[in-house]
Amino acid sequence: MQIPKRKSEEDRRNLAGPVDNYVTRARLEGWKKELIRLKTVDHRPAAEEVARTQAMGDLSENAGYQDAKWRLRKINARILSLNEMIKNAVVIETGTNPDGSIKVGSTVILEQNGQENTFIILGTSESNPLQGRISYSSPLGSLLLNKHAGDTVQVKTLNAEINYKILRVS
Any idea where the Transcription elongation factor GreA/GreB N-terminal domain is (predicted)? Predict the structure, then answer.
């Protein structure tokens, strides 16, 4: 079944700017499973609900119809979004650059004030600093790219400058 493209959705995507395409293989597989579920399980009942509520009469005052239509639009928008993300995905390969420097997908052990922290450098959609997953475009992540074990980086914040020593890269 062809999913209609709404002009407003296309405009919104065009205004969004460049998209971060770096994802782990697990995230990409999750998107593919979600897309299959939306197309095979969720879409048909939502479309049938729109047809069923549409038959109930005056569409301008039919809250059930409006709600069903909104749910179908939400499913269609997510399908379009997932198709776009899957099409443009760049799967992150773990490890380092050939010269041993940090790249997207590297695991890094940093020392700051005698305390060791482990981070993995990922794309923005998968970052979660509290879980040790930082974006390559974050202040710390961008400074770490192409650095080696033994290097030091300095992150400047509004209140302080924080120095990190790179202990290990893998």
Answer: 21-91
Q: How far apart are CA 55 and CA 47, in angstroms?
A: 13
Tell me what the mean pLDDT of segment 119-124 comes to: 94
Residues 15 and 82 in one domain: yes
For β-strands 152-156 and 161-169, DSSP reports them as: antiparallel
* 74, part of any domain: yes
Same-domain check for residues 56 and 122? no
Angle, vertex CA 99, rays to CA 150 and CA 89, nearest 5: 110
pTM (2 d.p.): 0.74
Q: Provide the β-strand partners of residue 107.
A: 120
Q: Both tokens of residue 57?
A: 């009469």
Whether 116 and 65 map to the same domain: the answer is no
Q: What is the number of domains present in the chain?
A: 2
